[in-house]
Amino acid sequence: MTNAPGFNTLAVHAGAQPDPTTGARATPIYQTTSFVFDDADHAASLFGLQSFGNIYTRITNPTQAVLEERVAALEGGMAALAVASGHAAQLIAFHTLMSPGDNFIAARRLYGGSINQFGQAFKSFDWQVRWADTAAPESFEAEIDGRTKAIFIESLANPGGTFVDIEAIAEIAHRNGLPLIVDNTMATPYLVRPIEHGADIVVHSLTKFMGGHGNSMGGILVDGGTFDWSASGKYPALSDPRPDYNGMVLHTTFGNIAFAIAARVLGLRDLGPAISPFNAFMLLTGIETLPLRMQRHCDNALVVARYLAGHDKVAWVNYAGLESDPNHALQQRYAPRGAGAVFTFGLKGGYAAGKAFVEGVSMLSHLANIGDTRSLVIHPASTTHSQLNDEQLVSAGAGPEVVRLSIGIEDAADIVADLEQSLAKV
Ligand SMILES: *Cc1c(COP(=O)(O)O)cnc(C)c1O
């Protein structure tokens, strides 16, 4: 081939080849904990990071390796590290960059679980999160000080489906000598490739649209290979001699894959959230159809958003794909193929109407997930956000009247019909 393979081709082939031993065409599930060494010198060189190879499935596994190569290719990154969940990916990303007493700046609009992880769990590592507003990129700069180590945003933010000006925030990060970490779970690289817009590290919950079938947990970190980790003492895991690896300095030895290596041999090795080979296989299989599924998700979501916007019981619809939406220009710039499949709308009848609506659906599933082939619905005020008061509900984008949809790949007419019959009962 003369040209680099296209996105659809990479989704099917990147990282994979027929199994050299058996000829198996699908990537085998290497369901083993450990791997036999050729001889004692081979074992020593693997342990000393002198050569690449498999030792133990907590650190590397051939099924996991294909998943890593595939997602790195789809994101346009240099290397990747697959782990047990999206939250594990975030934990390992920050563990690689942060020391006790350090801080990072994160967008206020994030997946609720990430708000908890950053605001609560990270406190016990003495890592501080400072919140900023993606609609005002300068609010990130205002929070930076001498102990700031990174900026974290979602490319397409939960729960409202808001596109973010990645380039403006990347510019602020780089001007201040910081890496930009982008959670690309909701957009997937089919819609947005954050590294092309200045991200240095991309993280994913593979549990959602990437795997796409609502059957397997997984997460991944992608190293863009773009960031200079050499500043002495700022990122010790990358720039200081490692006593556990004979004084090796990871950024000089591994160059533009140093972050991915550090995340694996210091983060995953010691914290331990490895992905199972079976889940890596399931996620890999899902990713083969990512471009087809994402386009259908987006096309269906636009049909549903237009339908809801014209319904007399609906107060508002928050979908960037609608031309009238204030976020539409950013969507056109960053994700011209579509606006994603997760969005919110408000019912004129408030809390009671929201609750009645989710009880009235029949094909749609009432549950707390996104990015399944099936269409999903939730009323945050009576479920995920039920511990908040009305004022807190509104600032979280989960007011009493708000319903969140994750539109699946069924026939759009059937999704609309189910919404229609449920709205009739509200
Ligand atoms: C689900 C989700 C996560 C967390 O991923 P898990 O696989 O559930 O650990 C992180 N970010 C976003 C945007 C998510 O939707």
From TrEMBL:
Gene Ontology MF: a single term? O-acetylhomoserine aminocarboxypropyltransferase activity
As cofactor, the record names: pyridoxal 5'-phosphate
An example of a Gene Ontology cellular component annotation for this protein is: cytoplasm
Q: Which stretches of sequence are listed as region Disordered? A: 1-23
Question: What InterPro entries does the annotation carry?
Answer: Cys/Met-Metab_PyrdxlP-dep_enz, Cys_met_metab_PP, OAc-hSer/O-AcSer_sulfhydrylase, PyrdxlP-dep_Trfase, PyrdxlP-dep_Trfase_major, PyrdxlP-dep_Trfase_small
User: Which E.C. number(s) belong to this protein?
Assistant: 2.5.1.49
For this UniProt record, the keywords arranged alphabetically read as follows: Pyridoxal phosphate, Transferase
Q: Which GO terms describe its biological process?
A: cysteine biosynthetic process from serine; L-homocysteine biosynthetic process; transsulfuration
Q: Which residues carry this modification: N6-(pyridoxal phosphate)lysine?
A: 208
Query: What single Pfam family name could you report for this chain, choosing any that match?
Result: Cys_Met_Meta_PP
SUPFAM superfamilies tied to this protein: PLP-dependent transferases (SSF53383)
Broad class of enzyme this protein falls into: transferase
PANTHER family given for it?
HOMOCYSTEINE/CYSTEINE SYNTHASE, HOMOCYSTEINE_CYSTEINE SYNTHASE
NCBIfam families named among the record's database cross-references: OAH_OAS_sulfhy, PRK05994.1
Write out the similarity annotation: Belongs to the trans-sulfuration enzymes family.
Q: What is this protein called?
A: O-acetylhomoserine aminocarboxypropyltransferase
Natural source organism = Ferranicluibacter rubi
